[in-house]
Amino acid sequence: MRAGQVLLVLLAASAVMPAKDPLLNVCMDAKHHKTKPGPEGTLHGQCAPWKDNACCTANTSSEAHRDQSYLYNFNWNHCGVMPPKCKRHFIQDTCLYECSPNLGPWIDQGHLHLSYWVWTGLCLLLSSAGTASGLSLTLLGGRQTLRKKHPQGS
């Protein structure tokens, strides 16, 4: 399944009403996330599917769509003008990360008291790390670095 299709499945699954499973109704402990998911009224553009139960604010959803945003001090056009289709993909990724209350199964709370995604399968670049644990994974956009938690070959 292509990354875009996986993202759409995750978007649809995470935009539903609050789940009863505690892992599926939590916000990450991160810089721009609310402490608890809840209605936000209006979210901007591609973040709108989470308006009824969001971990992001309207301001965060608006910033996710800006070429130069304060969210990560990152410019979508840092390598030249990003094609619209590519930009749409990364904005969807940002909205999922910032707004979804259903990322609990992929949150790793063990790094500096902030939450990190683990094994999301979304837009990851693989690079050799030379560590005993395997590969280092860096999200495109440089938001964070994750270490492979599974032994080699699994």
Automatic annotation (TrEMBL):
The keyword Acetylation does not apply. The chain crosses the membrane at residues 116-140. Keywords: Disulfide bond, Membrane, Signal, Transmembrane, Transmembrane helix. It comes from the Eukaryota. Residues 26-109 form the Folate receptor-like domain. GO terms for cellular component: external side of plasma membrane. Residues 1-19 form the signal peptide. One of its GO terms (molecular function) is signaling receptor activity. The keyword ATP-binding does not apply. InterPro entries: Folate_rcpt (IPR004269), Folate_rcpt-like (IPR018143). This is Folate receptor-like domain-containing protein. It comes from Anas platyrhynchos platyrhynchos (Northern mallard).
